[in-house]
Amino acid sequence: MTRWTLAVGAAATIILATVAGWAATPKYYFQMQPVKAGPEVDEALKAFTADALKAELASRPEWASDVGPAGQAGPGQDRTALVAELKQRKLRGFDVTARIEKLKQEVKDPKPGARNRQLAVEVSLTVFGTTIPDAKLAFSGDGQSGSEAEVSERRLAADTADTVHDVIKDAIKQAVDQAVIKLSSTSSGPPGKHRRK
To answer: pTM score > 0.85 for this model?
Structure first.
């Protein structure tokens, strides 16, 4: 019985290691494109949003962002080498963009009995990817997040910046989760469905 238990344990370990190896193998390549937003969003916040989206995608094992020198060619440039590199690595390539649809920041009067004012922040954004090199829309995801908390007058600027950053990161995670589900479902649709005549 001990040998059987050890054998089952060893087999389970091998299976788990194999599954982990599969999960760790990238399937997609992403290249970040400039964040789109209205005039109310400054360049620093656009840069933060781009960095946050890049970090969120890079944290997921199915996504890769480094394919060597070939990955430096952007839209409008000759991407022949990039396409060849992606084919060799068996990766699907996407230009990924975030678009901030709504950014609302409001400082409200203190609640009855409270001393500090209320800071309310709300963000809505979309993350979408177009195929490399033919620029066809392949996936999109929406994220929305908000926060409301008491803030002291002397910490208002710092707390506002921190809250906006946290809310953006949360919305990005939601959008990427949604986008990945959509991308996975289109990648593994019902076999043979398109063959029907």
So the answer is: no
